[in-house]
Amino acid sequence: MKSHLFLISAMLLALLGAVPLTAAPNTLTAEERQRGFELLFDGRSFDRWMQGGNWVIEAGSLFCRDKGGDVTYTPNFVPDDFELRFEWKVAKGVNSGVLYRPGQVEYQVLDDANSNYGKNPRTKAAALFFCVAPARDVTRPHGEWNEGRIVCQGTLIQHWLNGEKVIDFDYTDPRWAHNIELLRVRGWAPPYSGDLAARRGLLRLQYHGGHVWYRSLRMRTIPQGEKVPRSELTELPMTPEALKIQENRIRGIQGTLKKEVDRMNTLLPPAKKKENP
Fold this sequence. Notes:
single chain; 277 residues; alpha+beta; Jelly Rolls; eight-stranded antiparallel β-sheet; five-stranded antiparallel β-sheet; 4 helices; globular; disordered N terminus
């Protein structure tokens, strides 16, 4: 009896070893290879990535160590229809993001528990920043790896976090008109600011003033005819505090816009006064 149990255990271990349930960091699973995923980062170099010197390679990850700018994947534009999978972690209170369309279209990366951004559901981790809140908070504590996923097909956008779909919406659906207007207002500066219909952007990992790590970045183009499963999800509720934070952000944008308009007015010739008839 014991010998049979040993044999069965050995066979199970062999099977698990031959077909791992999850891939090692910066590698593809058999399922991902079969579906056409491409590994964007090899865990060892900045090959195909551009940055200003504030990012380094640390323990197989892209690590933002110092002040500076974003790190950008340069070989190709993000496909119109795509699936991106990645892992991320942040230091305490740190904010970052994955920008996947031109302008300010961002999968939020955040230590929700220790950042003021976490007080507004529409700027929590896995939110479409300042546009759509996740349906639930499944973020792991700072210093732990999280698994992110972005799926875009046509006018459909989905965000996933740690194996759970938390955003699933069609930006042409009138139900989301208010959210889309928030994004347009937030990303007022051209080009394509806050325009979810814009395409041909480069994939960027955001620097936002703190330590953040990314690894296991892999992407595939979703082929024509593939049907992406949908879910009916509802945003986390906006509390009175969250609504006040959102209002203050919009008023801050209004102030910036007024300064820009005043600056542009200085470049124009003085308006001629109308003469009375």
